[in-house]
Amino acid sequence: MTFLHTALFAAGAACVAIPILIHLLLRQRRKPIRWGAMRFLIEAYKKQRRKLKLQQLILLATRCLIVFLVAMALGRPLLEQAGLLGAGQGTTLYVLVDNGLASSARGTGESGDSSGLEQSKQAARDLLRELGPGDRAGLIALGGPAEPVVIPASADLSAIASLIDGLEPTASATDLSGALDLLGAHLASEAEGESAGARVVIAVMSEFLLGSADISRPLPESLAQIPNVSLVAMEPASASGTNVQIVGVEPLNQVVLTGTGGSSASVGRENVRVRLRRSGPGVSDAQVTQVRLRVSGGRDSRLLPGMQVVYRWQPGETEGAVTVQIDPASGSDNESGARSLDQRVLVAEIDRDTVDADNTFRRPIDVREALRVGVIARRRFGSVGGAIEDLQPGDWLRLALRPSFAAPIDVVEIDPGSIDAPTLASVDVAFAASPELIRETDWTRIAEFVERGGLLIVTPAPEAPVQLWSDAMSRELGLDWRIAREAQSPDGGSIGIDPRAGDSALLTLIRAEIEDLVRPVAVERYLPIESDVREADVVLRLADGTPWLVVGEPARADDTSGVDRGLVVYLASAPQWRWTNLQATSLMVPLVQELARQGFGRASGDWTSVAGRRIGAPERATQLAPVGVEQAPVDLDGSGRTMSPIRSAGLWEAIDEAGRVRGFVAVNADDQASRVQIQDPSSVRAWLSAAIGQAGSGAGDANGAGSGATFLDPDEPGAVFSAEQADSPLSVPLLIAALMLALAEVFMARWFSHAIAERSEGGPSLTESMGLAP
Amino acid sequence: MSEAPPSQPGTTSTSIRTGPSPRPAAADPSHAGEHDATLYLHPQTLSRLGTFELRAKMIVEGVMSGMHRSPYKGFSVEFAQHRPYVAGDDLRHLDWKVYGRSDKLYLKQYEQETSLDLVVLVDASGSMNYGSRLFSEASGQGVKTSPSGQSEWTKYDHATATAAAYAYMALRQGDRVGLGIFADALIDAADRTSASSQWRKIVNILSKHPVGEASDIGRVIDQTLAKLNNRCLIVLVSDFFEDPQRLRTALARIKHHRHDVILSQIVDQQEREFRFTDAAPFEGLEGEGRVRLDPRAIRSAYCQAFEEHLDTVEKLARSFGFDYQLVDTHGWLGPSLASFVSRRNAILKRTKAG
Is the torsion defined by CA of A680, A682, A688, A693 positive or negative? Predict the structure, then answer.
């Protein structure tokens, strides 16, 4: 049995000894009365002794019981929890333990170096201990996505305590919303079952740092309609340390092309930008962060010289970036076979601070000899040559892709009428210069190619008066574009390109010169996208604002993998004289080269995922095995993704059925989850209260005896079980019982001692008149 | 009350009062009894008693002439009647004249005037040391404590006052008065006499304190009867916290010796009513030990047992033809004595008339 006020009950129960003590003390202190007619007294006493003893015992028991009942009433026993009011009617406690990334922050509590998770686990264990034998408990780990460890609730509290002990911090964000949704659905189903009417207490064990609880985003009200639900939580942390995190590692080239027979020497060094962020109370101070970047071949890695830089934070600065030059091809010759993969892993590290999991960031990067680009265009028989006016878009593209023999791009001719899967599988990029010739069925193959991480660049058919091909393309690729069927000509005959290039990463390397490069370009015809295009998808616009170069991502059935794969780039004008002079300007080569390189890098995905998601793996991989960690491989489903989310940060090897490594997948900490700013308790309480459909006063009483969520009292965690039962009917019956018993005691005491008859005769007691009464 | 006891005339008119057990004055032992005697009889008591003549229930053989009539035909001066001789009669009392005239043997019988032999036995057992009445209230003169320092008016105080009253009355009549103080045996005694010094002697004996022993009336009666060679009026002043069977035996012996008895049972009001309210240990005055109880709970049973005992004692007294008087220590001594003597006179008159 549990009590709302255990201490009060203990003190009250100890008071049961008071009647006994009074009896014993008075027994010793009462002055004896010297009596002459003792023989009659003894005679009467012998006659009455048994009856008197029984009466005295009854009186003593009654008095003790009165004190005990009062103690019980003060202690507020929670009998429902003990199952005394019927099976299944005890309290069901759902413990939601925050093991998200922010929960691993140290120095947030009073206990020094212990993490928030440790404190949450301790609070959860304390709360479990307050439960009685008739109560049940469930457990949800909040490390995103929320994991129902024990759902439905179980009566095996010790097992749940063990499971709590075993919880480890994840690198993912705290998913309280998901947990509440999950719990809401479960409780809704239970509300219709045998457990209807049972009291439910949901305890959120979290320090509510900003990374754990973004109170600007309201929680779902999935529990609002569930009856008898109360929500309690730990007090938000009152202090935190300063945390610096690596937000991203961004190589300028998504794919490093070494050229035929290339080596590190021929490629040179690549610039890699490491983005940093810091949070916590130390933001207002200056700070130094040392960033180390290394290239890993996978299982083995080494830190190359010259790859350490220092970033000096200015007071108040929260975002920063450093650029580190590395030799991506350096890698290592190791025994893992990664050499044959043309893949390296960039690993950025900073010093240990409040949160560890975000101090390391891994980023796989492709290192290839050459990029294979397939040009889907009408094949011209004979050599390319003759008048420049006769060059078709395919010709221009070939020239732009391979302006010299040293260019690390291999061009593959693809006949639009005979597009097959093996051909598409052999290329990295497909240029559709004659889209009108592609059959609808072939668009399906192209869509599969894109979905596997291929890049498709499409230009209008230069000769077709009506462009009918776009319908099939949009449909098969799942694009929401609606491309016009007839080309348009700008007023005045031609129009220039808006030099203000978009923020697309595709033009990162030429952004500095883009204004000069686009100036000579004149567009005389274009086939616009009639539907709305997101601003972020527009790479270049015409001078009148019409999107001219647009990127689009094919729709996926499930985009939770965290890896964006496949890309479609649409150039609204065919590189042909009647459409534009682009092919003759200095923009043509860099534009096509960058579209191919950066586009492919983006299309193929960076194989970097955020913890807490199901992650995808390179083609033909069937398992993901963690690198450097003793852990069993994770099987992949048919779509090439893990069956369950990966919550911890680390590097994974994608392994095919033959056991060969197909590539690497890096899982990094959620950069939004490691923000360690503390939050106002009243705001957190109001935020939590909304989840159960109650207002929850945002100010003042943090423990809120009224409606809404309440915070746990660390010294008396059991109080929460009846805090929402402030008007619990249990104490009232106990008090009434004690009162009735007290009345009965008065009557019994009078009756047993014949005091009523005596009083009726009047007069003070003789002991009093003789001064013998105490 | 204008008369003093025979032996100390003039001493009671100003200072006689009811009070505790008297003590001889330390400064002048020779006058202790005289002084202490005044403690036993309250002026009210003596004034009431002075209007009555103490008449014995029976006429005893005595050496003193008085107002008492003897039922026995003795051998004194006034002839009463003749009766036939039977074997064993004393030949000295044969009327030879009648024998000479009628040749028949008759004895002469005479009616004598007798005086009363009064023997007062006062119980000094431990139970007599109980009293719930305040001394200051009982003394009637504002004295708060007895000379021994007790603040309560005990049953023994009341018993000695009663005994003194009887003795005073008898001595004033010229009767012989004897006194005994007893517990489990006679503690002290004064032989019967009507001498002028008897009053002082009685007062001295009454000054004995009660002792802690239980009373043994049977043994005391045996000791007393051994000293009595003529019929006496025995006044037993006690609480009679005695086994009724043993009391019956004792009274039967007295009856056998043809003595008359007055049983004066002294009880305290608290003993009868038992009006305690708070639980407390009760400790026996005769070594019965200690018992802790709730008085309110046991009162009914106690009172029933006590009243039954009183009733038993009274019935015992009545069964032997003895007089019985219940004396409450909370009442004045005078009215009870007056009532007793009045009742006794009425009985005597009815007897003479019959």
Answer: negative
Instruction: Tell me if B104 is assigned to some domain.
Output: yes
Question: Is 90 exceeded by the pLDDT of residue B240?
Answer: yes
Domain match, A490 and A556 both: yes
Residue A669 burial (C-beta neighbours within 10 Å; 0-12, 13-18, 19+): buried
- What is the interface pTM, i.e. ipTM, of the complex? 0.73
Cα distance from A44 to chain B (closest Cα, Å)?
5
Q: What is the CATH number of the domain that holds A542?
A: 3.40.50.880
Does the CB of B284 have a partner CB in chain A at under 8 Å? yes
- The per-residue pLDDT for B313 is 95
Q: Chain-centre distance of CA B138, in angstroms?
A: 21
Interchain CB distance below 8 Å, B277 and A767: yes
Q: Quick check: B248 pLDDT over 90?
A: yes
- CB within 8 Å: B285 and A33: no
| Residue A774 falls inside a structural domain | no
Domain containing residue A622? 609-677
Residue A758 confidence (pLDDT): 46
Burial A460-475 (b: 16+ CB within 10 A, else e): bbbebeebebbebbbe
Count CB pairs under 8 A between chains A and B. 127
Please list the ranges in chain A whose pLDDT falls under 50: 80-88, 262-266, 301, 332-340, 560-562, 697-706, 724, 726-727, 755-774
Supply the CATH number for residue B128's domain.
Answer: 3.40.50.410
Q: Say whether A753 and B296 touch across the interface (CB within 8 A).
A: yes
pLDDT of the residue at A521: 92
Q: Residues of A with CB below 8 A from B276's CB?
A: 33, 765-767
How close is the nearest chain A Cα to the Cα of B144, in Å? Answer: 14
Whether residue A766 lies within 8 A of chain B, CB to CB, comes out as yes
How many domains in chain A? Answer: 5
Residues A666, A717 within the same domain? no
Taking phi over 0 as left and psi of -120 to 50 as alpha, with beta for the rest, A682 belongs to: alpha
Mutation for testing the A interface, residue in B296, B299, B309, B329 having most A CBs under 10 Å: B296
* Cβ–Cβ under 8 Å, residues A55 and B296: no
Nearest CA in chain A to B283: A34
User: Does residue A570 belong to any structural domain of this protein?
Assistant: yes
Contacts of A22 in chain B (CB under 8 A): none
Residues A754 and A703 occupy one common structural domain: no
Q: What is the pLDDT of residues A199-227, one digit of tens each?
A: 788 899 998 988 888 888 888 887 777 77
Same domain, A392 and A474: yes
Per-residue pLDDT averaged across B272-277, rounded?
87
CATH, residue A98: 3.40.50.410
Q: Which range of residues forms the domain containing residue B313?
A: 12-56+115-353
Q: d(Cα B206, Cα B22) in Å, to the nearest integer?
A: 7
Nearest CA to CA, how far is A740 from chain B (Å)? 23
Contact A38 B286 (CB under 8 A): yes
Residue range A256-268, pLDDT digits in tens: 777 655 444 445 6
Residue B288: closest CA among B156, B159, B125: B125
User: Is there a domain that residue B318 lies in?
Assistant: yes
Please say if the pLDDT value at position B43 is more than 50: no
The per-residue DSSP string of A425-473 comes to HH-SEEEES-GGGS-HHHHHHHHHHHHTT-EEEE---SS-SS--HHHHH
Which residue has better confidence, B12 or A450?
Answer: A450
Same domain, B43 and B172: yes
Shared-domain flag, residues A428 and A521: yes
Whether residues B84 and B226 fall in one domain: no
Whether residue A621 is found in the same domain as residue A557? no
How many angstroms away from the CA of B162 is the closest CA of chain A? 19
Domain end position, chosen among A687, A708, A723: A723
Q: Mark whether A690 and A672 lie in a shared domain.
A: no
H-helix or E-strand spanning residue A200: strand A200-205
